[in-house]
Amino acid sequence: MFTALKGLRSLETGEVLDDAKHPFTCPKTGGALEGAYDLDWARRHVDRDELARRPRGIWRWHELLPLRDPGNVVSLREGDTPLIHAERLGKDLGLKRLFILDESRNPTGSFKDRGGSVSISKCREVGVRAVILASSGNAAACFGAYCARGGIEYIGFVRADSSAVHCLQVAAYGALTLIVEGDQGVNTRLAEEAAQKIGALHASLPRNLYRVEGKKTAAYEIAEGLGWKAPDRVVCPTAGGTMALAMDQGFRELLALGWIDRMPAIDIVQPEGCAPVARAVRTGKKVEPWGEVRTRSAGLTSPNPGAGNRVADIVRKTEGQAVIVSDDLNIEAEFLIARREGLFLQPASGASVASLMPGADRPRPVHPEETIVCIGTGTGKNATEVASAALGPTVRIKPELGAFIGAWNERKGK
Q: How do residues 153-191 score in pLDDT, each as one tens digit?
C-alpha cells in the first residue's frame, strides 16, 4: 500500500472526508483539512530503519503522505536537507546543541519545495489544471518549478519588494509573473478572486493543506537525524505559519507511531514590523490584522495569516515562545551564520538564529543545554538585495601587489 491515508479530516467538524471528492476544504464549513492516517497500520508495516535505505527525498515517507497513486508524484528530489550542528555559532551564543536545518539545499533554494512537491502531485491526482499563488518570492519560485515539472499552468503574484531573482525564476519556468501593487494581504485577496474567476486553485491556506503535509517531512528528518529523538525546541521563522503547523503535525504523528517519546517546544519568530501571530500569543487574544507592514525581511510579511490562530495555539500548547526581532538583528544573524558556519541564508532564515541572540525580544531565556533546531528556510542567493545593501559594493583594486596589500591591511584593521 503506497499510503496509509484514510482521508482528510475537517479541523472544525472532525469528520474524515474522501480526499478524491473533497481534496482542499471542508464542504460544510469551508475550513481547513488535515491528512488522517491509519497510524496503527503504519506502526505494523513501516520499519523506520528501512526508511533510511530508500532513495533520498521526501517521498521515502510516502506511507505518511496524502497521495494514493505513485504515478502522480511530481518531484525534483526535494528534502533530506542536512541537519548541521552549528558548533562555532552555538559557542558564540552559549548553546552547546544548536542545529540548523539547511533548507537552502532544496531544488529552488527553500523549504517551500517540500510542500510544492506534495501540492502539485495531489493536483495531478485530482485533475487541477491551473494554480495561482500570491507570494513574497520563495513560494512563487517553488510553484513555478513544480508546475512546470507537473505540466500544470502556474500564475505567480509577487510584490514590489520581491527579489529580482525570484521574479526571474518564475518567468524562466514559463509562468505568468505579475508584480501586484500592495502588501501580502492585498495580493492574497486578488489571488482568491482571480482563482475563482478562471477556475484555478488558489494554493494558499486554508485551501492547500498539502503545503503543510509536505513540510512535515522536515520533522521526520529532524527526529531521524537526532537518533529518533525530538529536539527540545524548534525555531520557525513565521509569516503564514505553515512550518509551525508542519512541525506540530509531523512530530505528533511520530509520537503516535511511538518513534519519539515527546513533543518539542515550537517557537515562532516574527519581525517587529509584522508580528500579528506573536502579538496574539503574548496577549492571549485572537490574531488580528497587523496593518501597515514595515520590514525588510521579505519572507516574513503576512499581515493577516489565514492559519494564524492555529499557529498561536500550537505555540501555547507546546510551551513554545513567540519571539520578535528587528530587521537589523535578522541581517546580523544572516552574516553571523555565514561567517561561523559557512551557510548563506536569507534574512528571513536568519530570524531563527536572531531569536537566540542578545537583542531579541524573547519572553524567556532558553537553557544552554537544550537541543535547539533552527529552520534555515531559504538561501541568501534568493534574496540578494538586502544583503548587498548591507555589505556595500565589492572593493576594486588595480592589478598591483601594493594595491592588494593595502586592501588586505585595511581588512585587518592595520
A: 999 998 887 888 888 899 999 999 899 888 778 888 899
273-293 pLDDT, tens digit each: 999 999 999 999 999 999 888
Distance CA 346, CA 336 (A): 12
Please report which confidence band the pLDDT of residue 14 belongs to, taking 50, 70 and 90 as the band edges.
Answer: very high
- Cβ neighbors of 46 (< 8 A, separation 6 or more) are 4, 63, 64, 257
Nearest to residue 259, comparing CAs of 128, 76, 64, 101?
A: 64
Residues 19, 22, 26, CA angle at the centre, nearest 5°?
115
Amino acid at 394: T
Cα dihedral sign, 38-39-41-45: positive
Q: What is d(CA 315, CA 247) in angstroms, rounded to the nearest whole number?
A: 11
CA atoms within 13 A on the CB side of 178: 16
Q: Residue 39 and residue 326: Cα distance in Å, rounded?
A: 42
Give 232's contacts (C-beta < 8 A, 6+ positions apart).
Answer: 264, 265, 367, 370, 371, 372
Q: From CA 271, how far away is CA 326, in angstroms rounded?
A: 6
Banded pLDDT at 386 (limits 50, 70, 90): confident
Domains and CATH numbers, the chain: 77-414 (3.40.50.1100)
Q: Are 212 and 245 in contact (CB under 8 A)?
A: yes
Half-sphere exposure of 142 (CA within 13 A, CB side): 33
- Give the pTM: 0.95
Q: Cell numbers at residue 302, please?
A: 503576512
Burial 100-121 (b: 16+ CB within 10 A, else e): bbbbbbbbbbbbbbbbbbbbbb
